[in-house]
UniProtKB/TrEMBL annotation:
It comes from Nocardioides zhouii. SUPFAM superfamilies: alpha/beta-Hydrolases. Residues 40-252 form the Serine aminopeptidase S33 domain. The lineage of its organism: Bacteria, Bacillati, Actinomycetota, Actinomycetes, Propionibacteriales. Keywords: Hydrolase. This is Alpha/beta hydrolase. It holds the Pfam family Hydrolase_4. InterPro entries: AB_hydrolase_fold, Hydrolase_4, MAG_DAG_Lipase. One of its GO terms (molecular function) is hydrolase activity.
Length: 327
């Protein structure tokens, strides 16, 4: 391992994966060690057109004794190579390979026997699918930050006809780009060069997102269908989101106080489909990436996370099956 772009406290390692039709493939694992380790760990998975740069989130866990790991999935961030189509996969299950290899490093190589898995947006969909299929013994809890649980927008986008069309086109012309217009307002609200609070690489997380292809959307919709049929993740699960969404004209105020990417009502609707023990909390005034919200808002989110962690995860007397909760 070597020092990461985030600074000397962060170590980074490349994970080699089997090549695909575009050539060689890698993922990247970033690690932050706590000053006073408690033997536990966290593994974080980012969302679409994103990568790990969330140093405050990592430090929050490390300050509580957790070794923090984050994976940049294939074709994202540190793992993106020039010959690749950024962010593209044809099946969300492809990501299981790098999550498996990261998990092996965390649990077998580094010896952690209690691990919390964390996911944001599309990562918040991928992580439950992985946990449902793999059922790792070391998984003690799951934290989902604005997980993408359904297709937002007009009802016809979720109709059977739309599903059939996406499935057929995604099979016959997977690399067909879906026309869409993405406002840079959200990116501007985050990045330090445009008045935001966060400094990150705009080549890895562009202000106007990334192109979306039909084959990728087909993969996401298949993931949604699996989630909607019901998963069986048995550990305690926390779902954090904004209290409200906004899909009208975007301004600095609406972007920083609402989820302008996903429909939070859908998040709340499908949260209980992840597993048998789910706590869902909407943070008033939060944005899409809850832990990048304004300081006073993300402080509320961290308070909620702390209370949940103490109540359901760090109390040794409570087992994952001790009771069901959904709020």
């Amino acid at each position: 391992m070597q020092a990461d772009v985030l600074g000397p406290d962060y170590r980074v390692e490349t994970i080699s994966l089997p090549p695909d039709s575009e050539g060689s493939v890698v993922a990247t694992l970033v690690t932050l060690e706590p000053d006073r380790p408690n033997g536990r760990a966290v593994l974080h998975v980012h969302g679409f057109a994103d990568y790990f740069f969330h140093t405050e989130y990592a430090r929050w866990w490390a300050d509580r004794g957790y070794t923090f790991y984050a994976v940049d999935l294939r074709k994202y961030g540190r793992s993106l190579r020039e010959h690749q189509t950024p962010n593209y996969v044809s099946d969300l299950h492809e990501y299981f390979a790098e999550i498996d290899l990261a998990w092996w490093r965390i649990t077998q190589r580094d010896g952690h026997r209690e691990v919390i898995v964390s996911g944001h947006s599309t990562g918040g969909l991928t992580v439950p699918l992985w946990a449902h299929e793999r059922r790792p013994a070391e998984l003690t809890a799951m934290v989902l930050n604005s997980p993408w649980f359904d297709m937002q927008g007009a009802a016809w986008l979720r109709s059977p006809a739309a599903r059939v069309a996406i499935e057929r086109l995604g099979t016959s012309r997977p690399m067909r780009e879906i026309p869409r217009k993405v406002s840079p307002v959200y990116g501007h609200s985050l990045h330090v060069e445009h008045g935001g609070e966060w400094d990150y690489d705009l080549a890895w997380k562009p202000l106007e997102s990334r192109p979306v292809y039909v084959g990728w959307l087909r993969a996401v919709r298949r993931g949604h269908a699996q989630l909607h049929a019901g998963l069986d993740v048995t550990c305690p699960i926390l779902v954090l989101s904004s209290a409200r969404s906004w899909f009208g004209e975007q301004t600095d105020e609406t972007v920083t106080t609402h989820d302008i990417v996903l429909d939070v009502e859908q998040i709340r609707r499908w949260a209980s489909s992840v597993g048998r023990h789910v706590t869902s909390i909407g943070i008033d005034g939060a944005m899409h990436d809850v832990v990048l919200s304004r300081p006073e808002i993300r402080a509320q989110a961290y308070d909620a996370l702390e209370r949940w962690l103490g109540a359901w995860v760090e109390r040794s007397s409570v087992s994952p099956d001790a009771g069901d909760a959904h709020s």
